[in-house]
Amino acid sequence: MVTTRPPWSQTFSSLKIRNYRVFATANLLAVTAVWMQRVAQDWLVLELSGSVTAVGITVFMQFIPSLVLMPLGGILADRYSKRLILMISQGSAGILAAIMATLALTGHLQVWHVYLIAFILGLVVVADQPARQVFVNELVGPRQLRNAISLNSSIFQMGGMIGPAVSGVLITAVGGGWAFAVNALACTVTVISLILIRPGELIKSAPAKRSKGQLMEGVRYLRSKPTIFWPAVMAGFISVFGLSLAVLMAAYANNVFDAGAGGYGLLNTLVALGALMGALASTRFAVLRLRSVITAAGAYGVVLMLASLSPNMVTFGIVMVVAGFASLLFLTSSNQLVQMSTNVLVRGRVMSLYIMVLIGGQALGGPLMGWLAEHLGVHWAMLVAGGMPALAAATIGITLARRGHLALKFNPRNLRQPVFIVSKNGFGAQEA
């Protein structure tokens, strides 16, 4: 943990580590290809079915395994080699992408094919995500962990800027099938990069021994620490409502603004642009605070509510940049806080529970928001998508303030620190 804001020269400090540099380089290509596939998948389902609900069902099929099975992935990550798990999972994801590419390029792709492959890919994610989260610590060690998490988020959003834009062009020019082919190639590159990582330079922890009650041990650990429990609760609301943004953007691009696949890709790119700025901003924070995590989540909800009032594509696009910024401030700081608050011996299990909430919630949110968009209108659906996280953040904030006997104090004369959090017991104040 650091107590002062790190200098700008340390923004990319974890890239000085050779193993992480190899991993991060391949990861940039991989996440760009994943974004390409995600946009192509959603748009192809919308074209084949003509239904926003069908897009939501695709999201459900891909994320329902995480909702049900993700804790098993955490147990695997604590017991076995994270590097080996990632090699197997990325190889499997490449095979699935190749199958999708073949079906799409030969004109045989049907909606049920997408549902089935999305479900199998969801099973792969169950093993991949907990191992990926914990593997970062093995690559860089605890001193560089926060920086590496922020850079991983930055890399993911750089891919999110490039991938949707390229995918939109591909869909328009030659068809979405080529996006799946690119992802199959990227998965192959990822496997090769994992082979190139030097095992002797990894900072490994002792694997957890097989025993009864390992999952419940992780559950009890999560519930016992507010810095893990409350971010996980907030992540649940964000994932069910706020992270279904892609479903709603498809409806806005197709039904409201008539912008087509290119417009949908552009909206995804704008969200990713804001998210990249949010991820980079998170590298500048000196201290992790629970209240900052909850505030970022509430801000994201408010921005989505404002998006529901956007009168045109330009205004909506600008708001999407801000939404991306707020969402990544929450996601990155929440991930950092949970990992830094967790003992390394149970980190795989705790992270699997956190990811189960964050990813699995989208299995519920995708169909729900698609249904709301079709039956109430996309504007009302966007209002709900933002309103529920904002309400949850306000409720959690009030709950924590009452437990800590805290209150807000305003001093408009102090332009540098106009808002303070004050202890009602007289123990001083903190900058809000």
Could you characterize what this model shows?
There is one protein chain. This protein is mainly α and 432 residues long. The chain has a single domain, classed as MFS general substrate transporter like domains (Growth Hormone, Chain: A). The protein contains 14 helices and three strands. A three-stranded antiparallel beta sheet has the order 1-2-3. Strand 2 and strand 3 form a beta hairpin. The longest helix has 32 residues. The two termini are 20 Å apart.
Please tag this protein with its features.
432 residues; mainly alpha; Growth Hormone, Chain: A; three-stranded antiparallel β-sheet; 14 helices; 3 strands; 3% strand; globular
Task: Reconstruct the topology from this structure.
Layout: H1 18-49, H2 52-79, H3 82-105, H4 111-140, H5 145-173, H6 177-196, H7 214-224, H8 226-240, H9 245-256, H10 260-282, H11 290-307, H12 313-340, H13 347-375, H14 378-403, E1 406-410, E2 419-423, E3 429-431
Antiparallel strand pairs: 1-2, 2-3
Helix pairs in contact: 1-2, 1-4, 1-5, 1-6, 2-4, 2-13, 3-4, 3-6, 4-13, 5-10, 5-12, 7-13, 8-11, 8-12, 8-13, 8-14, 9-10, 9-14, 10-12, 11-12, 11-14, 13-14
Please state how the strands of the largest beta sheet are arranged side by side.
1-2-3
Low-confidence residue ranges: 426-432
Main sheet overview: 3 strands, antiparallel
Query: In angstroms, what separates the terminal alpha carbons?
Result: 20 Å
Q: Approximately how much beta-strand content do the residues carry? A: under 5%
Q: Identify the overall geometry.
A: globular
Q: Cα-atom Rg, whole angstroms? A: 21 Å
SSE order? HHHHHHHHHHHHHHEEE
Helix content: over 70%
Query: What structural category arises from helix and sheet content?
Result: mainly alpha
Name of the top-level CATH class: Mainly Alpha
CATH topology: Growth Hormone, Chain: A
Indicate the mean pLDDT: 81
Overall number of strands: 3
Look at the structure and name the CATH superfamily.
MFS general substrate transporter like domains
CATH architecture: Up-down Bundle
Tally of individual domains? 1
Number of helical stretches of at least 4 residues: 14
Subcellular location: Cell membrane
Protein name: MFS transporter
Pfam families: MFS_3 (PF05977)
Domain Major facilitator superfamily (MFS) profile: 1-404
